[in-house]
Amino acid sequence: MYPEIFAQDIQKVFEGIDNVKITILDKKAIIENKMGLLPAVANGSHNDPRVVIIEYIGNPNSKEKIGLVGKGITFDSGGYSLKPAASMINMKFDMSGAAIVCSTLLAIAKIERAINVVAVACLTENRIGGHALPLVEAVATAMNGKTVEILNTDAEGCLVLADGITYAIRNNNATKIIDVATLTGVIRGFFRKVRYRCI
């Protein structure tokens, strides 16, 4: 499942549900939104990235809005920090975070909960290619303007989530953020060392 196919399938799933708004950003729109980390990961693949934004307003009188941000790596090779062969098995499921946030919003919309929710699914592959930006020690600029030195290209989930979180806050006015990701071993050490602030 490539990012484009994932986005198309999500559109089909939400057909007939009137109380949601779906926006799909292609690579050009992603770059125009200055989401520099997501295309940095995506540039190694010949399949372009997508961002799927699904917005549900169940309580128009409330300013509270939950942002669900999901990691959608449709295949994760590890990039130049290449995974061992055995560790690549089941990496087609590295999009599970994105699938979960979209499914969660679908359930909320179907039961018409009186809350406001936006789901942001950041979709790309993490491959190796001649146009891949994130070599080890490369620097990329996030949507919020912060620069990130990439010390391990297999930490791509943290990069795409960072841009997705900023998008949910700035473009969809999310007041609370829940991110969902298959970050595997990196989760143990990453969030103790890095603090990412969206301002």
Describe this structure in words.
There is one protein chain. The chain is of the alpha/beta class and 199 residues long. It has one domain (3-193): Zn peptidases (Aminopeptidase). The protein is built from six helices and seven strands; from the N terminus they run H-E-H-H-E-E-H-E-E-E-H-E-H. It has helices spanning 3-13, 27-32, 37-42, 96-111, 156-172, 187-193, and strands at residues 20-25, 50-57, 66-76, 116-126, 138-141, 147-150, 176-180. The model is unreliable at 194-199 (pLDDT under 50).
Text of the CATH class: Alpha Beta
CATH topology: Aminopeptidase
The CATH homology group name: Zn peptidases
C-alpha end-to-end distance? 34 Å
Per DSSP, the total helix count is 6
Rounded average pLDDT: 92
Beta-strand residue fraction: 15-25%
Radius of gyration: 16 Å
Query: What is the SS-derived class?
Result: alpha/beta
Summarize the structure.
The protein is of the alpha/beta class and 199 residues long.
Write the layout of secondary structure elements.
Layout: H1 3-13, E1 20-25, H2 27-32, H3 37-42, E2 50-57, E3 66-76, H4 96-111, E4 116-126, E5 138-141, E6 147-150, H5 156-172, E7 176-180, H6 187-193
Parallel strand pairs: 3-4, 3-7
Antiparallel strand pairs: 1-2, 2-4, 5-6
